[in-house]
Amino acid sequence: xxxxxxxxxxxxxxxxxAGAAAGLLAxxxxxxLAAAEQRAGLARLDQESALAExxxxxxxxxxxxxxxxxxxxxxxxxxxxxxxxxxxxxxRSQALRLYRRGEPAARIAAELGVPVQEVELLIKVHEIxxxxx
Length: 133
Description:
The chain is mainly alpha-helical. The protein contains four helices and no strands. The chain has a domain at 86-133. The chain starts with a helix and ends with a helix.
């Protein structure tokens, strides 16, 4: 029976050693998973801080863009409020030439495609200039 007792004790030791080995492997795996989780947490924090920085930069760019749009809107509205002259220099010359020929202001305006009031004003300014010379 001693051989049987030794065999039983050896078998029991084998089971205990196998259990200890399995426990040790499980402990190593848990440590490995914990380390991986810690690295993932640090990476997540880095990503969150980078994302926060990007959000700040996007908000700053959006504010700058809005400022530029406001400036353009003001400049466009200012440019739109300044009336453009209907007659350029060649049309003015042509209008005065027709006036000297005796054409009425309405016909000059129709021929040049400008408002009658503009032709009448041109004629009045021309007469004032001639009277002062």
